[in-house]
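User: I need a structural model of Phospholipase B-like from Pocillopora meandrina for a docking pre-check later this week. Nothing fancy, just the predicted structure tokens so I can convert them on my end. Input:
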Amino acid sequence: MAKVAVWKAFVSFLLLFARISFSKGDYSMNGTVYYTDGKYHIEFGVLDKENGVAYGTYDDALITTGWGELNIASGSTGSYSDQTIMFAAGYLEGALTAGRINENYENNYYIAFGQKSEQFVKKVEEWFDAQEEWMRNKIKSESKNSSLWRQMGNIVSQYDGLIAGYTENPPKEKEVLGKFAFQLLNGIGDYLTLGDVISPDGPPDWSSMTEEQITAKLGRMGHCSALIKVLPGYEDIFAGHSSWFSYGATMRIYKHFYFNLRDPSTSAKRMSFSSYPGYLVSLDDFYIMDSGLVMVQTTNNVFNTSLYKYVSTESLLAWHRVRLANLMAHNGEEWAEVYEQYNSGTYNNQYMILDLKRVELKKSLLSGALWVVEQIPGLVASGDQTEILRAGYWPSYNVPFYEEIYNLSGYPEFVKKHGPSRSYQLAPRAEIFRRDQGLVKNLTSMKHILRYNDYPTDPYSDNNPYNSICSRGDLLIPSDRSPSGCYDTKVTDYGMAKSLMSEAINGPTHQGLPVFCWSHFSFPNKHVGLPDCYDFDFVTMKPKF
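Assistant: Understood. Predicted structure tokens for Phospholipase B-like:
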């Protein structure tokens, strides 16, 4: 027995050492979280599926494949409360990924704040604190009679566990991050709107920009391309997504969660999604759930800044409502009903919810197969768009689909001034998707279209590397160049999604374009712990538990 104890201690030491020296290469570790006498603790190097509340593995191959992969199961045994199950899951994630959380925060702090003043950062922190206080008070007062607030309490328990697991098992020789780091990481999408609302300089002054500057600015603001494609005979259906943001945000972890919650309002107990260290959400978004739903998202612009008066701390952030809708919804309509409640007006997106239960391969697409949701401050619009999908495809490229959202966002005036290439019908990516979606025959060609960028020769790109499906801001003219644009792609098909599987690639597209390397440029952006060059291929993602 003594030898066993010594061996377990030695293994734990090695795993802890690996956690503080991961940047030098790949590593894997696992652990189990126990709950005894009202306290949580973790045993590294142990996968105890019988006695632990939560157990899981973390495989970090960021440097060699572009991805880490996290698998966590919680509540599969025992009679634990839902809040205990969620706290333990968060605790395990915080402990396993602590070092990467520090690096990801350092990179994202620069993206968010750069040279902004400490006073501005303090205002953002105060806004997040006020919103969190309101939310926690609502959880206390409403959970007894509201399944929505009860489930929000479960999500907050996971969030609290994440912070506790990180704080009690911090990375060696690194600053231990405080609460604001986790508010910012999980709310970075919401911050994209909030920063403009709070900034003393106000929102962007589009009227003072050249067309090239507008294109570059829009490309840097965290946008994406998405496509849902059905084959002509309904032989298969594909869903894919390419994220656009700063390349400094490419510290990726693909996550697989299995949470055996008892609450009858739970629809999805398993979900797999692209994510980042310290995030309990995708951000991109790209989710596959055992409820049969696949959700992808792209960000829309709000040019009518008078809408910002509807942004309020007495609300649920977009990331909160996404987690709630994913957890509770059985179909796209229910997803929209959950999401539209307590709209914060931040991170204003188009969400596409594909319901695989309404897809009958080689037969039909039943009504409700595709539900599309759009948000602006003060309004959420949604509807069944299966009829459009039946014609072959649904594209998404950062321009609102619903007329009311489009008009209220200020697009008619913006298009009148800057031309039809800013419109829903004639945006460059709308034209490219319309031309090339018919070339998608299988998963390989689906990958190709979502990594596509042939800006030097494609007439629809007009020789601008931002005007394509997978943009490359680093290839702009030197005066506008920045390390931003399309930096990943995730794809799945009907059969894979049924098993919560996908294929994913990290990094800017090098499909006919040069590989991006940080060392080839002198950008000031932080890229701590990231690969130098992104010459990766697609990786198959599959849950272990």
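Before docking, keep this in mind: The longest strand covers residues 27-36.
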